[in-house]
């Protein structure tokens, strides 16, 4: 599978010694959290990223030739037990999560540009409690998982307003449910339509003939 890698990143991959880094961005109720795999803070993409060092963990990102909705698991250890409830309350199911993989140069600066290797949405978190500290694990589902979910949408006027406010294309859908007639033929709005014609060739008289 091809990768949209910059020439600088491709050149870095060919070196014998590299400094790989991972950036994670996740949206919580209190705001957007941006962390990276190093220690201290670092600037990249116009944002400041906080280092989690060895306290952070990421499960392997699987990939194959066939489309699969494989997710990943993010973990953060060393959280004081009295802050676990607060941390869990910050999680927002279906909130976006992004992950980038990149490198640092000899001056500890980010080589442009890290590659986004995963994007998904938060699932329900879990906690592994220890003596004084705990570890929070957050499952992140692949965006492809939405393909397996049923869409509760309807061909109604109300549903049409969700995406196209003011559009009247489905305004009379509800009334059509009770309509009983033949589509495309002029006539009354009753249960049948009638049209009148003059005498056909070969018919005697000038009587009127009704076609139903």
Question: What do you see in this structure?
Answer:
There is one protein chain. Helices cover 11% and strands 35% of the residues. The protein contains 4 helices and 11 strands, in the order H-E-E-E-E-E-E-H-E-E-E-H-H-E-E. The chain has helices at residues 7-13, 84-89, 157-163, 173-176; strands spanning 20-28, 31-36, 41-44, 47-51, 56-58, 72-80, 96-103, 115-129, 133-142, 195-197, 209-211. Strands 3-4-2-1-7-8-9-6-5 form a 9-stranded mixed β-sheet. Mean pLDDT is 81; it is low at 191-212.
Number of strands: 11
Q: Low-confidence stretches at least 5 residues in length (pLDDT < 50)?
A: 191-212
Structural category is mainly beta
**Relative strand content:** 35-45%
Work out the helix count. 4
Which outline best applies? elongated
Give the strand order of the largest sheet, numbering strands 1, 2, ... along the chain.
3-4-2-1-7-8-9-6-5
Order of helices and strands: HEEEEEEHEEEHHEE
Rg from alpha-carbon coordinates? 31 Å
Q: Could you estimate the helical fraction of the residues in percent?
A: 10-25%
Biggest sheet: strands, sense, closure?
A: 9 strands, mixed
- Give the N-terminus to C-terminus distance in angstroms: 64 Å
Rounded mean pLDDT score:
81
Summed up:
With about 210 residues, the protein is mainly beta.
Keywords:
212 residues, mainly beta, nine-stranded mixed beta sheet, two-stranded antiparallel sheet, 4 helices, 35% strand, disordered C terminus
